[in-house]
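Retro notes (design track)

What went well: tokenization of the new backbones is finally stable.
What didn't: we kept losing track of which sequence belonged to which structure.
Fix going forward: every design gets posted as structure first, then sequence, in one message. First example under the new rule, 527 residues:
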């Protein structure tokens, strides 16, 4: 026995060396069951060269988030916003018992790719039994539909829209603070994800999915019938948040009322735009009302130029913060079918990646949860203002925290470079845990957010899977609205963008690492 120990160590060492990528050999790098801290076994060059194998490792671990009581509630099929993890071990602790339509959208986009037969999506959902992935998501989506239907019966005033919701009971209800209130932006994201979901169910018709497709179609049709009444005030005004007179009264009850909360309107050219397209294409609006939507939005679509540290000029669409959260709409609709949009958005990734490279930031910026206060085991708060101030509407920003998910818009153009950034961030101390990547880290390595969320994890996964714009395109073509979508999208961007500067600039890769300031990796995910 005495001699076994060193022999075993040696054997393990030999395996480790074999598994390690060696130079530029083209041997596959992925592992069937990669180690939790797999990112440290990959150099940047290896990620750039063997991106698909790196993706295989990533999906295996990100998929650990997708568990009952962590990412979702198996009883009612609903998502949870996320869960905290223990600062020392990395085990899941305090669950966020609520969710929103935007998280639901991520869940449904992910599941659409599973049903469409993506092996990568199946690896995320059930790596040990990829063939079982479809059955698993169908059963969740059956429960979710019933849950949405019960919510609609109990709270008919929402007309099918979802507020922030408490999702830990079988019957969901408006989360504290969301009684008689409903946000537009998140629901726009949900509608288009369900649109793509129905498409994939109808398309993959050999498994008896048609009843489920009909159920979801009835839900979406019903919801869209009410949306204009709930969110649209005419003259191009769409409420950011609508105040409902009484959520227990039906939409058509004479005593029911809807008005915008305060002066907040949804007219941004970013995520909120998904609502405008739904209204334009399916809202049964007059031509005047349709035109007014775009007239109201137009001032926000602004051309800007990025230039810093010898990089640029690069023509970009000015961001609100230029946060990596903002391009969300391109995951759901086929915006990149429009040449000028695809090129402007490609330029955005030149600016995003090169800005961090030349300013020596070890990662990318996006709105994200702040770090954990270790004393009180709480998340300090949410950081909205995180992006690139020089090309943003909002120039006051907090740039001490970076997040792996900010790489997703880059991944959509270039998986290799995008994932080189993702790797650079998760290589930081505590940035991998037993459920994959960790929410965020300080640039200076002094703290991380010991948290798992749909946003910070699954946006990246959905981007790796290519979004669902292709499914939306197919359905829009079948519905006869695709050409109109392209016409509007092209018209709006062509008004602002013509010749673009900087299209010959390469995307940048990370130039510095997150410093080691003595944080200890999670015990259940050590190198
Ligand atoms: C939602 O509830 C209303 C009012 O009870 C009902 O008429 C409608 O059919 C329901 N819609 C769906 C999709 O369940
Ligand atoms: C993030 O947390 C730090 C403490 O680590 C705090 O000083 C800072 O104000 C927080 N930032 C935001 C935008 O809330
Ligand atoms: C930010 O957007 C608002 C609303 O469109 C606009 O009035 C303001 O001028 C913009 N500011 C900058 C710096 O872009």
């Amino acid at each position: 026995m005495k001699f076994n120990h060193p022999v075993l160590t040696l054997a393990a060492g030999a395996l480790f060396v074999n598994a390690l990528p060696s130079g530029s050999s083209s041997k596959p790098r992925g592992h069937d069951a990669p180690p939790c801290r797999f990112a440290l076994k990959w150099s940047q060059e290896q990620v750039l060269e063997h991106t698909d194998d790196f993706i295989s490792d990533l999906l295996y671990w990100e998929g650990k988030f997708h568990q009952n009581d962590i990412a979702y509630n198996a009883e009612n099929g609903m998502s949870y916003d996320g869960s905290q993890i223990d600062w020392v071990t990395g085990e899941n602790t305090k669950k966020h018992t609520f969710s929103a339509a935007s998280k639901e959208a991520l869940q449904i986009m992910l599941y659409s790719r599973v049903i469409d037969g993506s092996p990568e999506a199946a690896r995320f959902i059930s790596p040990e039994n990829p063939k079982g992935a479809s059955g698993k998501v169908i059963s969740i989506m059956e429960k979710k539909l019933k849950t949405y239907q019960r919510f609609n019966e109990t709270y008919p005033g929402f007309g099918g829209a979802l507020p922030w919701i408490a999702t830990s009971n079988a019957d969901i209800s408006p989360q504290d603070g969301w009684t008689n209130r409903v946000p537009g932006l998140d629901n726009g994201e949900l509608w288009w994800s369900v649109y793509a979901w129905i498409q994939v169910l109808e398309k993959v018709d050999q498994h008896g999915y048609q009843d489920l497709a009909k159920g979801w179609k009835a839900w979406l049709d019903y919801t869209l019938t009410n949306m204009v009444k709930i969110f649209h005030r005419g003259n191009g005004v769409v409420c950011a948040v609508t105040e409902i007179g009484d959520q227990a009264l039906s939409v058509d009850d004479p005593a029911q009322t809807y008005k915008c909360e305060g002066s907040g309107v949804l007219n941004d050219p970013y995520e909120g735009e998904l609502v405008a397209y739904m209204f334009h294409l399916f809202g049964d609006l007059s031509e005047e009302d349709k035109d007014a939507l775009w007239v109201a939005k137009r001032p926000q679509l602004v051309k800007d130029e990025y230039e810093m540290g010898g990089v640029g000029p690069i023509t970009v669409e000015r961001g609100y913060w230029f946060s990596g959260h903002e391009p969300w709409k391109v995951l759901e609709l086929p915006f990149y079918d429009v040449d000028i949009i695809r090129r402007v958005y490609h330029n955005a990734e030149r600016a995003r990646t090169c800005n961090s490279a030349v300013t020596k930031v070890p990662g990318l910026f996006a709105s994200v949860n702040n770090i954990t206060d270790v004393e009180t085991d709480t998340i300090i708060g949410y950081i909205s203002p995180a992006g690139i101030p020089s090309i943003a509407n909002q120039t006051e920003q907090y740039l001490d925290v970076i997040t792996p998910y900010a790489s997703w818009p880059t991944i959509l153009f270039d998986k290799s470079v995008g994932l080189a950034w993702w790797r650079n961030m998760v290589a930081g101390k505590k940035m991998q845990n037993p459920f994959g990547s960790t929410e965020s880290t300080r640039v200076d390595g002094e703290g991380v957010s010991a948290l798992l969320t749909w946003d910070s994890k699954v946006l990246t996964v959905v981007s790796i899977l290519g979004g669902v714009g292709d499914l939306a395109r197919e359905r829009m073509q079948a519905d006869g609205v695709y050409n109109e979508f392209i016409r509007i999208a092209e018209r709006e961007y062509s008004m602002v963008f013509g010749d673009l500067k900087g299209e010959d600039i390469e995307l940048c890769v990370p130039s510095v690492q997150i410093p080691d300031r003595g944080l200890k990796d999670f015990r259940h995910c050590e190198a």
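Added context from the reviewer: Confidence is low (pLDDT under 50) at residues 1-28.
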